[in-house]
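Notebook, bench 3.
Goal today: get a predicted structure for Guanylate kinase from Vallitalea guaymasensis so we can plan the truncation constructs. The sequence was checked against the plasmid map this morning, with no discrepancies at the termini. Length recorded as 210 residues. Pasting the sequence as submitted so the record is complete.
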Amino acid sequence: MNKKGILIIISGFSGAGKGSVVKELLSKGDYILSISSTTRAPREYEEHGREYFFDTRDDFESMIDNNELIEWASYCDNYYGTPRKFVENNLEQGKNVILEIEMQGALDVKAQYDDAVLIFITAPSVAELKARLEKRGTESSDIINKRLKRSYEEAEVINKYDYIVVNDDLQKCANDINTIINAEHKRANRSGELKDRLKDEFAELLKGEI
Ligand code: 5GP
């Protein structure tokens, strides 16, 4: 019997610590992370095929034209997108597939996959977000400002997510998300196979009486 995987979308303000939370979550169960394509330059510690597929704008645009992306968005002057094949193959195999993507793409995926679970991660305060971005030191102050402005716009739309989780303590945040996903697996509307089996068993037991 094939358990159906859940498509999990994790978004959050820049600096909320999404990457660390996702890393932690991956160690907690049957999760697999989709690697996105992007046109932004790699950070010093990033590797092609590990954090992202770092592609040219031409490559990216031809992926759009060939319908190879489930969704894509422009974020602070760069393209980001989710390769379709990887996601579809892994969901079919019953894996919980994590997309760590921004809001516009998240809502686009939700429109296509009605049963996707949307989780938004934030730091406890805006001051903390700004401090984390500055401490990370991977972006210029110009880009940090762009990202904070984008976060301000995103704050308006958080209510479209299914869950919001505060990342104050990394372990607790990852545990909270794992608990949410375990509960999602138990939703009655995801349990069609169990329902069908139980009905068959009743029919067998009550043969001749119903
Ligand atoms: P960063 O440059 O900090 O790695 O990512 C910038 C933003 O792009 C983050 O909010 C991240 O979640 C989002 N992002 C990463 N990959 C994708 C993707 O495939 N699609 C979309 N829509 N957003 C993405």
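The CA atoms of residues 15 and 136 lie 8 Å apart. The chain has a mean pLDDT of 94.
Flagging this for group meeting.
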